[in-house]
Amino acid sequence: MHYFQIKYVIRWLGVPCFILILGCAPLQVKDGILSPPHKNYTVNIPGKGWEMIKVGKEDIALWHKQSHAMIAFISSDIENKKVSLKMLNNQLFIGMKNKKILLKESIVVDNQEAVHTIFVCEIDNHKFKVDSYVIKFENKVYDLVYWSPVNSFDYVREDFKSIVKSFKFLNL
User: What does the alpha-carbon distance between residue 146 and residue 165 come to, in Å, rounded to a whole number?
Assistant: First the structure.
């Protein structure tokens, strides 16, 4: 998967398609922990093989070249506080073709209710497997998403699981 395909795959997440390899807009990682600027969470960043990518004005994305996998952290304001987690989860995946849900469960991430979903889908005639967590906290929604081609999904998925376990809201 090359740079332009990466941009296309990120687009289905609703993230702007302008991608900058880090260096233009530095993110601070201290002792393997990332706290994105102007966000109220921290997360441990895996080292081996992962490259941080800055995505527009959104949070961050990580690219694993060898397995063609990506991880994205997306936080956004919720205008209608009555919107359910189920609805927020469904909105994340609008526009995917041939979506087949393999797992959908309620779960807790850092003491907050979340929806965990694993599914396969097609984007631009490529088959992907996706693992996502959607968390509603105060007036924001947090999407933690991992995806890769189906045949390499398990290769670095443990890194994503570790990231989700390390996700912590800051007491501001």
Answer: 14
- Helix spans in the chain (H): 3-11, 85-92, 157-166
Domain architecture of the chain: domains with CATH? 3-169 (3.40.1000.10)
**Model confidence over 42-101: pLDDT tens digits?**
888 887 889 888 666 568 888 998 999 999 888 888 877 778 888 888 887 777 888 999
Q: From residue 90, how far is each of 13, 50, 74, 95 by CA, in Å? A: 12, 28, 15, 11
Strand 69-77 to 60-64 pairing = antiparallel
Nearest to 92 by CA among 136, 44, 157: 136
